[in-house]
């Protein structure tokens, strides 16, 4: 029933437009906090991934505030292995993130279909995850929710990490890892997140170690019937060595996993960048095909061994120690390959181990003759010397002979650095490029390992090459929506400065009319770009000029910016030449819009009566009653008869009332 309700809630968004911009398409995935849809950004005409928070989360004002703050922080991360955050918004209580759309699959799909993976493949998948986390940790951002579902793999094989900052926003709702919202991610939570809710870069390191364990074994290190049991295991039980499930895994890979997942955060690598360097060392050992590298394994396990020396084995095969809480038995794993984890047990001697037992001096009387004892002592001495020589030789080989120092390659070109490294048998690769105000473009600004650090002979030095000072050219912003212009500037780390709004007759409302500095101006990150944004066409109030002389009305309308269209009509009440009516005669229009006016031609025309051959008095009466005026003229041959011999206008013609009719009498 719950699934049906959830489906209905998700489906109701399909086809809807959020924030007037994002048209929601098919549902891509659903998690404990949000549902992801494919959507179309109608402003920029691009496909995005829209992560919509589940109903109710937007009701928490504190969550909404933190959600916006974390989204803005995540949007500042610009890295090829980070899923870019384009926008965040709210639509009628629905909180959402607009993110880069990455078609492909998740790391969870890879584990499900191909797990367990070979150590080399597992490390190759982990490296870009750590690269993304390194960028985040450098920016002071902790992910808090590293898990296979948040690692996306595009069709071209690019690995990208999603959901930076989202888990931090969720914690403000008052939920803990075991109360619901992070229920699905409890398998990857660092112990400190369970015990006190605190998190730093080392918490992401722990989750990355759990992720590596799962890639190597196809199973999670801790399981339980409830999330509480799993969280308890994170706090009270060490992550077992992956080789317990996959015996072919080298000891140094085991050590890497256990170092990253140390329950004491002080024993873990300080951040993802440190863990990344350790992963590269392990990956290099795998490339050389070493079944074991005691020196590397020792480097990774020394802190753990120092910690474990403070512990002692109890009678049940578990440990208690001064610096640790008691180990608690955890339900055994049920991995996909059918093998089970064995509980930690007290170390037992193998058949070829030598156990030295101190002898009681009183027992010497029971020992055999002195001769055999001397013979055995000589053999023992020779064995000890041989062992010492062997250990010394191995120590020299593994600890000194195979290593050299990383040369100083700073401020050289990549080609010159490669040549100088080649002189001492080392290879170089461009591991990273970054901006620098001090190191010229194309020169080496950093190496891994650092200059003077130990590196395996014939090993590889990662170069960080300068891209020169970080500068950007102002892009073309004219004609863009104000929000689109801001996003375009955000992408190159420029900032919107002063925004001026003004009416414009040609640029639609909300679009950028102009900007300064001008196009292609080179600027530093953080510099401001000023925008002039259109309010659209200026509205103009239409005056009512009904009854006004047409010439005055036309002049007034033209000064206001309107185009005047005239129509003439007869009107008995409006004097000729004045405005009878106007459309429209109120409200607002825009410049060059048309105003139609009807101009009076005076009263309607009437037919002139025929008064010829009528007496003057009768003719005057007829014409006067028809509305005309009468003017009498005598014919040149006037006879005094006073009969109308002619009229002008002639009978039957149309004339306005009031027109003077001239009658000629004889």
Strand order of the largest sheet: 1-2-3-4-6-5
Rg? 46 Å
Helix proportion range: 25-40%
Report the CATH C-level class of the largest domain: Mainly Alpha
| Largest sheet geometry | 6 strands, antiparallel
CATH architectural name of the largest domain:
Orthogonal Bundle
Separate helix tally: 16
CATH fold node name of the largest domain? Transferase(Phosphotransferase), domain 1
Number of domains: 6
Structural class label: alpha+beta
Uncertain spans, ≥5 residues at pLDDT below 50?
Answer: 1-10, 169-184, 307-374
Oligomer: single chain
Anisotropy-based shape = rod-shaped
CATH homologous superfamily identity of the largest domain: Transferase(Phosphotransferase) domain 1
Q: What is the average per-residue confidence, as pLDDT, rounded to a whole number?
A: 80
Q: Please count the beta strands (DSSP E, at least 2 residues each).
A: 31
- Fraction in beta strands: 15-25%
Please give the alpha-carbon distance between the first and last residues. 113 Å
Domain PASTA: 400-467, 468-535, 536-601, 602-666
Catalytic activity: L-seryl-[protein] + ATP = O-phospho-L-seryl-[protein] + ADP + H(+); L-threonyl-[protein] + ATP = O-phospho-L-threonyl-[protein] + ADP + H(+)
Region (Disordered): 314-371
GO molecular function: kinase activity
């Amino acid at each position: 029933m719950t699934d049906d309700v959830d489906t209905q809630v998700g489906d109701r968004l399909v086809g809807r437009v959020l924030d007037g911009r994002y048209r929601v398409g098919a549902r891509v995935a659903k998690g404990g906090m949000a549902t992801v849809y494919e959507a179309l950004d109608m402003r920029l005409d691009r496909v995005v991934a829209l992560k919509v928070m589940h109903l109710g989360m937007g009701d928490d004002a504190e969550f909404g505030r933190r959600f916006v703050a974390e989204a803005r922080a995540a949007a500042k991360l610009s890295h090829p292995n980070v899923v870019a955050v384009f926008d965040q918004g709210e639509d009628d209580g629905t909180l959402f993130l607009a993110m880069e759309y990455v078609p492909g699959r998740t790391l969870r799909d890879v584990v499900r279909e191909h797990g367990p993976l070979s150590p080399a493949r597992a490390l190759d998948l982990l490296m870009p995850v750590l690269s993304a986390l390194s960028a985040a940790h450098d920016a002071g951002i902790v992910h808090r929710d590293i898990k296979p579902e948040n690692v996306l793999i595009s069709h071209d094989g690019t690995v990208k990490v999603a959901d930076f900052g989202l888990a931090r926003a969720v914690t403000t709702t008052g939920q803990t890892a075991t109360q619901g919202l992070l229920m699905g991610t409890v398998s990857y939570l660092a112990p400190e997140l369970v015990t006190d809710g605190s998190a730093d870069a080392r918490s992401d390191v722990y989750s990355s170690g759990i992720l590596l364990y799962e890639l190597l074994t196809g199973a999670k290190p801790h399981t339980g019937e409830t999330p509480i049991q799993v969280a308890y295991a994170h706090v009270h039980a060490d992550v077992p060595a992956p080789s317990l499930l996959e015996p072919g895994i080298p000891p140094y890979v085991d050590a890497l996993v256990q170092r990253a997942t140390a329950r004491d955060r002080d024993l873990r690598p300080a951040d993802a960048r440190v863990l990344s360097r350790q992963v590269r060392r392990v990956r290099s050992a795998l490339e050389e095909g070493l079944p074991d590298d005691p020196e590397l394994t020792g480097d990774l396990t020394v802190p753990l061994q120092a910690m474990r020396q403070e512990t002692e084995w109890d009678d049940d095969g578990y440990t208690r120690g001064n610096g640790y809480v008691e180990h608690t038995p955890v339900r055994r794993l049920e991995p996909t390959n059918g093998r089970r984890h064995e509980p930690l047990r007290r170390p037992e001697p193998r058949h070829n181990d030598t156990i030295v037992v101190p002898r009681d001096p009183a027992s010497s009387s029971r020992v055999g003759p002195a001769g055999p004892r001397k013979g055995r002592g000589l053999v023992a001495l020779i064995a000890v010397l041989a062992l010492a020589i062997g250990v010394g030789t191995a120590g020299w080989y593994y600890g000194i002979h195979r290593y050299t120092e990383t040369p100083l390659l700073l401020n050289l070109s990549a080609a010159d650095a490669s040549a100088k490294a080649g002189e001492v048998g080392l290879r170089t690769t461009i591991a990273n490029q970054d901006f620098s105000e001090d190191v010229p473009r194309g020169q080496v600004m950093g190496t891994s390992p650092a200059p003077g650090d130990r590196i395996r002979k014939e090993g590889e030095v990662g170069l960080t090459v300068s891209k020169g000072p970080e500068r950007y050219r102002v892009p073309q912003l004219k004609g863009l929506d104000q929000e689109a212009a801001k996003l375009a500037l955000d992408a190159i780390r420029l900032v919107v400065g002063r925004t001026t709004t003004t009416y414009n007759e040609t640029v639609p409302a909300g679009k950028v009319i102009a900007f300064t500095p001008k196009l292609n101006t080179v600027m530093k990150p953080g510099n401001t770009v000023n925008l002039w944004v259109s309010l659209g066409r200026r509205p103009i109030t239409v005056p009512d000029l009904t009854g006004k002389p047409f010439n005055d009305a036309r002049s007034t309308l033209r000064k206001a910016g309107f185009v005047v269209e005239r129509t003439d009509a007869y009107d008995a009440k409006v004097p000729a030449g004045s405005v009878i009516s106007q459309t429209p005669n109120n409200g607002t229009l825009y410049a060059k819009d048309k105003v139609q006016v009807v101009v009076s031609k005076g009263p309607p025309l009437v037919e002139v009566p025929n008064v010829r051959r009528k007496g003057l008095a009768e003719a005057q009466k007829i014409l006067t009653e028809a509305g005309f005026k009468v003017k009498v003229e005598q014919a040149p041959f006037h006879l005094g008869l006073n009969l109308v011999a002619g009229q002008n206008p002639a009978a039957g013609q149309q004339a306005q009332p009031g027109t003077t009719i001239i009658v000629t009498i004889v």
